[in-house]
């Protein structure tokens, strides 16, 4: 199994690779966005990356941003196809650790239908809300610390 360094993206190069992974997955692979998946939350988000140790390449990403009452939202979890298998769980756990360290009490996410069971295995629960975004069913989920 490959080894990864999970960390907050800080350098210009890390941010560039973080954005490239998101574009590769959400624009090119899944077609959820037309050209770019960035939004206003990116200005306040904490970008987390998984860097593959051997190549130094960013293999997966996730972002977290604060909302009211000290709660946080996670999103844009993306792993390049050649790195899939366990890396998503590492990224979610790192995001949970990061926001908990910043005082988060409840961590929310808008999860694609095929990933609900994955998040449940990591301790998340459904909030009861669902929606369709770009023809993909999403469910609101949360984990309470």
TrEMBL record:
GO molecular function ontology, one term from the record: acyltransferase activity, transferring groups other than amino-acyl groups
Listed transmembrane segments: none
UniProt-listed CDD domains: NAT_SF
PROSITE patterns linked: GNAT
Domain N-acetyltransferase: 4-145
Pfam family, one: Acetyltransf_1
SUPFAM superfamilies the record matches: Acyl-CoA N-acyltransferases (Nat)
Keywords: Transferase
Protein name according to UniProt: Putative N-acetyltransferase, MSMEG_0567 N-terminal domain family
């Amino acid at each position: 199994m490959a080894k990864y360094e999970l960390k907050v993206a800080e350098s210009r190069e890390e941010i560039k690779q973080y954005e490239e992974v998101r574009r590769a997955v959400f624009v090119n692979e899944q077609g959820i966005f037309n050209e770019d998946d960035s939004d206003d939350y990116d200005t306040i988000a904490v970008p987390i990356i998984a860097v593959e140790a051997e190549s130094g390449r960013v293999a997966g990403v996730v972002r977290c941003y604060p909302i009211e009452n000290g709660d946080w939202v996670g999103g844009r979890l993306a792993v390049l196809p050649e790195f899939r298998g366990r890396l998503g769980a590492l990224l979610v756990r790192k995001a949970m650790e990061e926001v908990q360290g910043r005082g988060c009490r409840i961590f929310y996410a808008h999860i694609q239908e095929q990933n609900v069971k994955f998040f449940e295995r990591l301790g998340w629960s459904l909030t009861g809300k669902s929606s369709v975004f770009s023809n993909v069913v999403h469910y609101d989920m949360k984990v309470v610390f």
